[in-house]
Write the structure tokens for this entry.
Amino acid sequence: MDRVGKTISFEIAGIAKGKGRPRFSTAGGYARTFTDKATATWENFVRLSYINSGGEKLSGNIAVIIQSYFPVPKSISKKKQALLMGAPFPHKPDCDNLAKSILDALNGIAFDDDMQVTLLTVTKFYSDTAKTAVTIGELEEGYHANVEN
């Protein structure tokens, strides 16, 4: 990552989960919104992975790189499985839902609020090991990504 100060990298073992849709219920005439159990479990695991890596709270504008690795389905022949290793993974979870679950999990732990994330890269690949590698860094003051129109 160019123009980045302090960085923290960590891995999350297992198959990544995207942010689930919010769930709703009513109690006593009031509506309540809550996160489904699978998403809550994944987000807790992300937090724990960050804390166990020695992660600390960063400040300023933040850059995040998320690289998720998913297993090749066993229904695919061994020959095709070998060809898919390292190839893009064009299936669910969607990149935006994957990023949302990780950034929401790190709110208040890796940064004050995920609105500080001004540069985000998310990639998904086939691999023989299911995991997600995350790198978070503080962008240097005055950094502006060069974007071509």
